[in-house]
C-alpha cells in the first residue's frame, strides 16, 4: 500500500466518524491501517478539514467536509475543471460558493432555506477504498437538531466520490431513517470553470423548460429548440426529463461529458452581471431532481453522476 498521511489532530474533525475508515481502530492507529492509498485528510482553506484524492495517473480531487462539497477536480498537469467563486468563504458562515454544492432536501427557494441545509452542515467520512488503484471515499450526513429545526425528519445521506484518471463520479443515496414518510427535491449545483462566451451545452434539445428568468417564483414553461445551448447573458433555466448524457464545451478547450442516472433534470445557471466579478469564468450545469422524491420509512433513493473528459 502506498504511504498515506493521516493528520489526527485536525480541529473541527469528527474523529469518531473518521475512525470508521476501513480497518482504522483508534485515533492513534498505525499509518498502514488508515485511509486507503490515494486518500489524504488535510486542512484546507480556513483550516476546514478537506479530503484530497489522488489517482495514480496524477488527477486530483478535493472535498470539504463542510457541505460535503467537491471543490476541485484537477487533471494530470493541474488544470482544474471546477470553479470556486472568488467570493467563496470558508468560515462556515455560508455554504462554499463553488465546486459541487449539495442542494438537499430542497432545490431553490421554498419552505426552508434556499437549497436546503446539506451544503452548510458538516459531513463525515465513513469509508475509504482503493478500487483498482483509484481512490473512493464515502461521506455521510444525518439529521441533527440543526436540520430537525427546519425539516423534522430522520435521514441518512451517503455520498460516494470516485476519482479516475479522466473522470470524477459521485453516487448519492438518501435513506429515510424516520418512522414517517418524507419527500424532497435535490441537486448537485456544479460550477464548471469556463469562458462563458465560448461555453455551450449539447443534448437538451426537445426538453421541456421552466425558465426562472424573469421570475424565479413563477417559471415560464417552454421547450428547448436549440441543439447547442449557449450562455449569452443571464440564464436560470430548468430542463425537465433531461437525457442521461450531456456534453459541455467549457470554452477553454475541453469537452466534458456529464452522465447521470436518476438525476432526471438539468439546471443551467449563469448569473451574468448579478455576479460581475466572475460570471465570465464559470457556468453551472446542475444535475437535479425537481419533481419531489417520496420515501417511505427505510426506503432509499440513489442517483449517480459521472463527469469525464472526452
Ligand atoms: O446563490 P445560491 O443560493 O447558491 O443559488 C444560486 C442559483 O442556484 C440555482 O442555479 C438556481 O436555479 C438559481 O435560481 C440560483 O440563483
From TrEMBL:
Q: Which reaction does it catalyse?
A: alpha-D-glucose 6-phosphate = beta-D-glucose 6-phosphate
One GO-annotated biological process of the protein: carbohydrate metabolic process
Its GO CC terms are:
cytoplasm
> Active site: which residues?
189, 286
UniProt keywords, alphabetically: Isomerase
Q: Where are the transmembrane segments?
A: none
Isomerase listed as a keyword: yes
Whether Isomerase counts among this entry's keywords is yes
InterPro entries, alphabetized: Aldose_1/G6P_1-epimerase, G6P_1-epimerase, Gal_mutarotase_sf_dom, GH-type_carb-bd
Q: What is its EC number?
A: 5.1.3.15
A molecular function annotated in GO for this UniProt entry is: carbohydrate binding
Cite the Pfam families for this sequence.
Answer: Aldose_epim
According to the lineage, what is the superkingdom? Eukaryota
Q: Which residues form a coiled coil?
A: none
Q: Which family does it belong to?
A: Belongs to the glucose-6-phosphate 1-epimerase family.
**Protein name, as recorded:** glucose-6-phosphate 1-epimerase
Native organism: Linum trigynum
The organism's lineage is:
Eukaryota, Viridiplantae, Streptophyta, Embryophyta, Tracheophyta
